[in-house]
Every structure is written in C-alpha cells, then in structure tokens.
Task: inverse folding
C-alpha cells in the first residue's frame, strides 16, 4: 500500500472514531441520532452535525466537534456552508411534511386486519 492511501485510511478511521463518540454523546445530551458513516463521507452533513453539537450546552460535545472540525477541509467559504446546510434542512422538512396518499393509508390498514377468524 502506498502512503497516500494509508493516510486516507488513518484519517477516515480517526474521523469515524470521533464521530462515533459524538453520536453517543449527542444522543445522550439532546436525543439526536446521526449517521456516522455518512458523516465521515459527506463534509456538508458533517458540518450540519457539528452545528447541532455546537448548539448544545455540552462541553464534551463542543470538544468532540472541534476535533472533527480540524479534520474537515477548510476550503469552503462560510456562505457556501450555510447554503448547503439550508438545502439539507429544506429536504428534511419536505420529508417530514409529506402527507400520505390514500393508497399508503390503505396499505397500512390492511396489514393490521385479521383474516377471517384467525388471530
């Protein structure tokens, strides 16, 4: 293996370890659950999670967030980061505000009915 792939592997491993600790602490402190693998792969999502961590009053979360922040590339401007984070929030709002169709309701109800007299 060459040194470049080893460096990437080590960086990913370190980011994964810290993100796992962040996951546990964030879940305990604010009942938020994050996707650790996606956080390691997507820097925009990682920044969104870090903003959640910074929004808490937990000192340990702030320290973990700072450690991950140091591993992220610093070339994006702050304005681009806010734009990307707003897009993520809009997508998640659309997902949670979606209304089920009548077909979805029917499918959900059918699975709860008993067939004949079987229970």
Result:
């Amino acid at each position: 293996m060459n040194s470049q792939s080893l460096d990437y592997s080590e960086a990913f491993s370190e980011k994964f370890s810290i993100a796992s600790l962040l996951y546990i602490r964030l879940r305990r402190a604010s009942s938020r659950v994050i996707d650790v693998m996606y956080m390691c792969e997507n820097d925009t999502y990682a920044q969104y999670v870090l903003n959640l961590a910074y929004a808490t009053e937990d000192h340990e979360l702030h320290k973990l967030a700072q450690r991950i922040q140091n591993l992220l590339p610093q070339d994006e401007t702050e304005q681009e980061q806010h734009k990307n984070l707003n897009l993520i929030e809009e997508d998640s709002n659309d997902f949670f505000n979606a209304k089920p169709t009548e077909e979805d309701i029917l499918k959900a109800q059918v699975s709860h009915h008993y067939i004949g007299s079987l229970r």
About this structure: The CA atoms of residues 27 and 63 lie 16 Å apart.
